[in-house]
């Protein structure tokens, strides 16, 4: 749907976004010139192992959160993070995430009354 | 009702069991995030932000503000004991604080930092108490065109003084303003950039964006540099400073209280600027400037007092004008709005109980922090022994539950995760998130007032350069230039902010 821009006397809902788009374009040009002028820019390293694992684990949370429920999803997330990033033994990670999720559930769902999805449990 | 009666009313809220409990929790969590390197006040506030939704507005704000100044206190601990600044404002404290610790004088350094923080914080609360009400009265009279000018001025100053590239800061501001346009247009009710999604009609969740852009991106960046921390551990009996320490620190604390209070008006990097200026002032006025950098106690007392004195001043534009000057206060705006309290000049007339409860809680919080920080410093230092990679799942799980609890929507978790990843990539390329957040908070108000002003003036852009706007701009710019000139005369340069932001 096209937003009505209106005019200066009666600006429509598209008026301000249009101004912003023009501003962003101007800034983008400035940044492009800046990049073009700077001779040798430093290489930015993206893709540290722990960061990639965390991002992958985080992306799985919204996928599983409602169908599997908060305790299972977050428990699995905690366990995976502890094993893969914290280099904790799997048994210890299972115990820690189990205890942690119980504490979380008690604090958020019981004490604060936050209605978290329970899933198949 | 007189101001004194209202302050007493504020104390009755702040000293109630609920007020005290949440103030304590805020201060405790604030100290923890201040101590842990990489988790600053903003990340700390965003992570516990959703917990405040079920609370009264005054209690919620008391807790969030407690986190804000608690982090300022806590930041000094790691600076002194580990030489790692807990947050940007503690960079200067590392210089002499760590040198003192190496010489076996960590205790007095911590004690003086805590006492200075207490004095600085208290002075700034007094200023907040006396300046905000009259300023709010003046601001009630201003129209939409002046509001637009003030908001643009704040954004322009943030661009000019923030660390890093100005073009990148401007890009982040424009992006923040653009993100603020998502959702129903408040003036016409037309949905904008929602792509047919019913969940986006209310706009992008501020909480999800704030936690993603600040909390998650911060955690991802820190994961790249996890290093074992070796901390110097002071004993409780070593905390008591000598008489000579107190005598040497007292004038520094006094001067830094004023410096922090005055520099708090600079949007964006006030807390960083004030610490550098305070350090430079103390070095210049010292009888033994050669001791600076080798463990001079005034080099700890000054910056630590200054960065805490900023907290009160930073609240003045928020509470009197509804304009946040630093990201932490932007979050407070959002918290107030969620509770149905509109920050700005009408706050004192419509919700005086919130303002006075906040002021009173800041007094109470400063005492709590003094009690908390000194005897428990050993426990806070032990926090540094927990591997960061173990803390990550805990913080992320709290973030997910917190974000979900706002609207009970999985879309918010998606927004948080995606904005976290985008924030991480942007930060790797040198784009700061603070200007984006400030613009996001101010965007809706800027657009609304901009369109109202144009409609009221029949489409004349001259409305933005009328007498009132020019008067306001001249006053604000004059004040900022004066403050900036003083900062530069004491050797402060923009590059210091860049270094502090990277620390």
If you had to describe this structure to a student in words, what would you say it looks like?
- The complex is a heterodimer of chains A (121) and B (503).
- Chain A is mostly helical and 121 residues long.
- Chain A folds into two domains: 1-43; 45-121, no CATH class.
- Chain A has four helices and two strands.
- The longest helix of chain A is centred in the first third of the chain and has 23 residues, at 15-37.
- Chain A is flat.
- Chain A starts with 5 loop residues before the first strand and ends in a 10-residue tail after the last helix.
- Chain B has 503 residues and is mainly α.
- Chain B has one domain.
- Chain B has helices spanning 3-14, 17-35, 41-48, 57-81, 91-102, 106-140, 144-161, 166-180, 206-223, 243-263, 270-285, 298-321, 327-338, 347-350, 352-373, 377-383, 388-407, 410-428, 434-456, 467-489, 494-502; strands spanning 183-184, 191-192.
- Classes of the chains: A mainly alpha (121), B mainly alpha (503).
- Chains A and B meet through β2, α1, α2, α3 and α4 of A and α8, β2, α9, α17 and α18 of B.
Give a nutshell description of this structure.
Chain A is mainly α.
Low-confidence stretches of chain A: none
What is the overall shape of chain A? flat
Count of strand segments of chain A: 2
Question: Which percent range describes the beta-strand content of chain A?
Answer: under 5%
Rg of chain A to the nearest angstrom?
Answer: 24 Å
State the helix count of chain A: 4
**In sequence order, what are the helices and strands of chain A, one letter per element?**
EEHHHH
Sheet/helix structural class of chain A: mainly alpha
Number of DSSP helical runs of chain B: 21
Strand order, main sheet of chain A: write it out: 1-2
Compute the number of strand runs of chain B.
2
């Amino acid at each position: 749907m096209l937003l009505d821009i209106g005019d200066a006397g009666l600006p429509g809902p598209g008026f301000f976004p249009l101004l912003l788009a023009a501003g962003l374009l101007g800034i983008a040009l400035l940044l492009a010139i800046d990049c073009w002028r700077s001779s040798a820019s430093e290489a930015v390293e993206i893709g540290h192992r722990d960061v990639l694992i965390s991002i992958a684990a985080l992306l799985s949370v919204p996928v599983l959160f409602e169908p599997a429920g908060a305790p299972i999803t977050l428990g699995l997330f905690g366990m995976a993070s502890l094993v893969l990033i914290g280099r904790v033994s799997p048994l210890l990670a299972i115990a820690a995430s189990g205890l942690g999720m119980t504490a979380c559930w008690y604090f958020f769902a019981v004490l604060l009354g936050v209605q978290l999805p329970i899933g198949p449990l | 009702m007189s101001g004194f009666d209202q302050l007493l009313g504020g104390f009755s809220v702040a000293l109630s069991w609920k007020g005290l409990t949440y103030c304590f929790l805020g201060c405790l969590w604030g100290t923890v995030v201040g101590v842990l390197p990489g988790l600053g006040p903003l990340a700390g506030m965003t992570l516990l932000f959703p917990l405040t939704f079920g609370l009264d507005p005054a209690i919620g704000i008391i807790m969030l503000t407690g986190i804000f100044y608690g982090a300022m206190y806590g930041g000094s601990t790691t600076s002194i004991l580990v030489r790692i600044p807990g947050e940007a404002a503690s960079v200067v404290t590392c210089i002499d604080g760590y040198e003192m610790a190496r010489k076996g004088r960590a205790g007095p350094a911590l004690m003086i930092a805590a006492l200075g923080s207490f004095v600085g914080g208290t002075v700034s609360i007094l200023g907040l108490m006396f300046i905000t009400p009259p300023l709010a009265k003046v601001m009630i009279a201003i129209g939409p065109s002046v509001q637009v000018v003030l908001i643009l001025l704040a954004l322009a100053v943030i661009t000019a003084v923030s660390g890093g590239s100005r073009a990148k800061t401007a890009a982040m501001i424009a992006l923040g303003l653009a993100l603020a346009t998502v959702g129903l247009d408040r003036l016409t009710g037309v949905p904008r950039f929602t792509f047919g999604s019913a969940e986006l009609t209310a706009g992008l969740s501020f909480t999800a964006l704030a936690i993603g852009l600040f909390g998650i991106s911060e955690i991802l960046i820190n994961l790249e540099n996890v290093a074992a921390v070796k901390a110097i551990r002071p004993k409780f009996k070593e905390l008591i400073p000598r008489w000579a320490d107190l005598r040497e620190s007292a004038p520094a604390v006094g001067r830094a209280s004023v410096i922090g209070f005055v520099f708090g008006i600079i949007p964006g990097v006030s807390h960083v600027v004030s610490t550098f200026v305070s350090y430079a002032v103390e070095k210049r006025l010292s009888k033994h400037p050669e001791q600076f950098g080798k463990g001079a106690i005034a080099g700890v007392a000054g910056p630590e007092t200054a960065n805490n004195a900023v907290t009160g001043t930073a609240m003045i534009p928020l509470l009197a004008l509804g304009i946040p000057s630093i990201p932490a206060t932007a979050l407070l705006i959002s918290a107030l709005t969620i509770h149905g309290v509109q920050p700005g000049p009408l706050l004192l007339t419509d919700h005086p109980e919130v303002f006075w409860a906040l002021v009173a809680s800041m007094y109470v919080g400063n005492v709590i922090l003094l009690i908390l920080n000194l005897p428990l410093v050993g426990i806070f230092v032990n926090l540094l022994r927990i591997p960061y990679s173990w803390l990550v799942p805990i913080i992320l799980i709290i973030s997910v539950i917190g974000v979900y609890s706002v609207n009970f929507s999985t879309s918010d978790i998606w927004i948080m995760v995606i904005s976290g990843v985008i924030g991480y990539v942007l930060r790797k390329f040198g784009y700061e998130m603070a200007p984006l957040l400030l613009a996001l908070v101010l965007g809706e108000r800027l657009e609304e007032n901009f369109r109202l002003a144009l409609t009221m003036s029949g489409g004349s852009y001259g409305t933005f350069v009328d007498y009132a706007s020019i008067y306001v701009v001249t006053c604000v710019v004059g004040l900022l230039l004066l403050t900036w000139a003083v900062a530069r005369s004491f050797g402060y340069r923009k590059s210091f902010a860049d270094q502090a932001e990277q620390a």
